[in-house]
Amino acid sequence: MTGQQTIPVALGEERIRMKKSPRRSFKFSFGHDHLFGTLKPEMLEAFRKNQVTQFFPANALVLGAGETPKGIYVIRSGKIKLSLPGRGSGGPTSRVAGRGEILGLSAMVSGKPCEVASQTLTAAELTFIPRNAIIRLMDEDSDFAFRVLQYLCNDLGDAFENVRAHLRPHRRNPKGT
């Protein structure tokens, strides 16, 4: 691919710098239940000015485990593998994320490194929104700030459920039944 460079990331991995897409009119088409689904039109317009849509090929690293994101990625299309730390993007799959899901939000808000690596399974279109735009929106719109908290709490609840599921003893069928 011409015009692309690699960027060194943690543990000697390299990431391909993706080309920015041509500037185009982009409107969030997420439903009312999505994090961005209830933004007021004037907030949405100001917010849109700060976003950049990027295209990633299959098997590209989006965010590395241990990397502190400078913003978030909203998945527009494609599938993203979230891998547990320890083996970079080649670690065991924690789950697969798809359209409408957000990558890097908890790490971006906390200022701490990502707990999982995000790697494309298919070609993907992602919208990057810088941290300062998210923080500014949280400052100006208390409803949005509350929705961010809800989103993070839902993620935390899902993580707890995954841990509980792994800790539950497997049920065995009694012999002879």
Task: Give an overview of the whole structure.
By secondary structure, the protein is an alpha+beta fold. The protein is built from four helices and ten strands; from the N terminus they run ββαββββββαββαα. Helix 3 packs across helix 4 (142-167). The chain is globular. Mean pLDDT is 75; it is low at 1-33.
Q: What is this structure, in a nutshell?
A:
By secondary structure, this protein is α+β, with helices and mostly antiparallel strands. It has 4 helices and 10 strands.
Total beta-strand segments:
10
Strand content: 15-25%
Helix/strand/pairing category? alpha+beta
Measured as a percent range, the helix fraction is 25-40%
Shape: globular
SSE topology sketch:
Layout lengths: L5 E3 L5 E3 L24 H8 L3 E5 L4 E3 L7 E7 L2 E4 L9 E5 L4 E2 L1 H6 L6 E4 L3 E7 H10 L1 H26 L10
Antiparallel strand pairs: 1-2, 3-10, 4-9, 5-8, 5-10, 6-7, 6-9
